[in-house]
């Protein structure tokens, strides 16, 4: 009886040791597995890495950079933006057509636009999350990127802080220039001039939405719904506000600035034209918004 009891105990010990050994063997494998969670994208649920380390951002790259996302591939337009060049040092420029290069970069997450080609092929390379431009407002877009990167709290904190700062700045500006004062945002093109509504980057979201400044009636009529309207030099006075933000493109034609039409606009004569760099102003991500908010604050309140 004692022998049987001893044998049983010995067998239990051996089984226990084998179990521990098996656990020790399999645990490292589990540790090497990529941890994922289900993100509710606009095209349906998709499993994405909890902590992505090799992101290819074919769109929304600036939003990812603002959350310190680990980008290995970026679109050419973001790469050319002077605000992001230092952050993108060593990052490859890719597109929805450069599938071989994307494969070589071994991404664990791809962010793409709904209008892009090869979405199915991209999804075979890595989980591909699609966003439709303009479907979300500029602040919700940042919060959505925060959810995707598992940094929702960080994104939300920035949104709340930005809204508070922009609201306070807008209040101070309106107190100085008057509640009824109007602001226009112009940009020089190759042979034309653009004027913008309230959601087309160039700081328009800050000026008209966050700071609640007014746009001239003609801009409301022509650009509020479409976002942008093209006009000739002769029409500039009809769209000019009491203050003008000039998004100046150094690579485009700026000869209209020498015309009598431009120089006879009251905002020009009263030194109420504030320039921004077009190349650094074509996004509505946190990095760009903070950059432009600082410019607007200094321009309006120090002038």
Automatic annotation (TrEMBL):
Subcellular location: Cell membrane
Coiled coil region boundaries: none
Keyword field contains ATP-binding: no
Pfam families for this protein: Peripla_BP_2
GO CC field: outer membrane-bounded periplasmic space; plasma membrane
Similarity section: Belongs to the bacterial solute-binding protein 8 family.
Descriptive protein name: ABC transporter substrate-binding protein
Originating organism: Halalkalibacter okhensis
């Amino acid at each position: 009886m004692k022998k049987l009891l001893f044998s049983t105990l010995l067998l239990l010990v051996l089984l226990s040791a084998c179990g521990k050994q098996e656990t020790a063997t399999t645990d490292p494998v589990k540790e090497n597995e990529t941890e994922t969670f289900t993100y509710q994208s606009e095209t349906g649920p998709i499993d994405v890495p909890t902590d992505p380390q090799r992101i290819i951002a074919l769109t929304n790259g600036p939003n990812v950079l603002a959350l310190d996302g680990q980008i290995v591939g970026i679109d050419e337009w973001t790469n050319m933006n002077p605000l992001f060049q230092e952050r993108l040092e060593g990052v490859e420029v890719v597109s929805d057509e450069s599938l071989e290069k994307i494969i070589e970069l071994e991404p664990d997450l791809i962010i793409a636009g709904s209008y892009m080609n090869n979405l199915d092929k991209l999804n075979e390379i890595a989980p591909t999350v699609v966003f439709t431009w303009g479907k979300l407002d500029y602040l919700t877009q940042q919060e959505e990127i925060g959810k995707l990167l598992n940094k929702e709290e960080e994104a939300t904190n920035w949104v709340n802080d930005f809204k508070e700062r922009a609201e306070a700045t807008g209040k101070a500006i309106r107190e100085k220039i008057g509640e009824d004062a109007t602001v226009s945002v112009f940009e020089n093109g190759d042979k034309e001039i653009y004027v913008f509504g309230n959601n087309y980057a160039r700081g328009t979201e800050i000026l008209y939405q966050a700071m609640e400044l007014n746009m001239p009636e003609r801009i409301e009529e022509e650009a509020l719904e479409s976002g942008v309207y093209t006009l000739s030099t002769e029409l500039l006075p009809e769209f000019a506000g009491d203050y003008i933000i000039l998004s100046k493109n150094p690579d485009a034609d700026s000869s209209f600035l020498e015309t009598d039409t431009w120089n006879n606009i009251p905002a020009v004569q009263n030194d109420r034209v504030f320039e921004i760099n077009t190349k650094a102003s074509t996004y509505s991500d946190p990095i760009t918004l903070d950059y432009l908010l600082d410019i607007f604050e200094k321009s309006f309140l120090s002038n």
